[in-house]
Amino acid sequence: MRITVLGASGGTGTKIVELAREAGHDVTAIVRTRNGRDTAADVMDPDSIGPHLAGADAVVSAIGSRAVRKPTSVQTDSTRSVILAMKAHGVRRLVVVSNSGMVVDGDDPVSRYLVKPILRQVLKHPWADMARMEDVVRASGLEWTIVRPPQLTDGPRTDAYRTAVDTNVRGGMRVSRADLAALVLRCAADPGTARQAISVAN
Questions:
Q1: Are residues 156 and 181 in contact, defined by beta-carbon separation less than 8 angstroms?
Q2: CATH class of 2-201
Q3: Which of 42, 140, 169, 187 is the most exposed place for a label (fewest CB within 10 A)?
Q4: What ranges do the domains of the chain cover?
Q5: 2/20 Cα distance (integer angstroms)
Q6: Where does the record place the NAD(P)-binding domain (predicted)?
Q7: Where are the beta strands (DSSP E) in 32-187?
């Protein structure tokens, strides 16, 4: 499978690229700064990234924002750019990494009334950006999948992760980047996950 990974220099993107290459996929890794192996392009410019998406079977966006204390639109703006580039080159399959924290859990009172209100104040800017990004993805008309992890760790790949569609994994507080990457690649290859928001946790 030919896969283009954006945000390939981040913690999650690095792991996605690593696992994809280990599995024998043809991977184009998009980074901001040329490093000798990967492809440098401006993700905010559809014309810059477009040629690197052309011919891909799937595009994966692991772009994240480092902004916490101030408003940000990095994920929303970059996703709009990616979608424009995909449409220009006839690429249909998109998998984006979001987060499960901003989703309110109806059947988990500890999370709903204690944990989430605190996190919502601390992370309100990146979460607002992610929520807008998800809206852009849903309205794209592409074959999209949104993957929502909770807190990320550097633990090993276990393949023992749990998933839930359009809701959070009950009691799921953490997931390793390796397991998240494994799920992202599974979704990219599985058309049955199209137009779903899938939460994951260990």
A1: no
A2: alpha beta
A3: 42
A4: 2-201
A5: 10
A6: 7-191
A7: 39-40, 58-61, 93-97, 143-148, 151-153, 162-165, 174-176
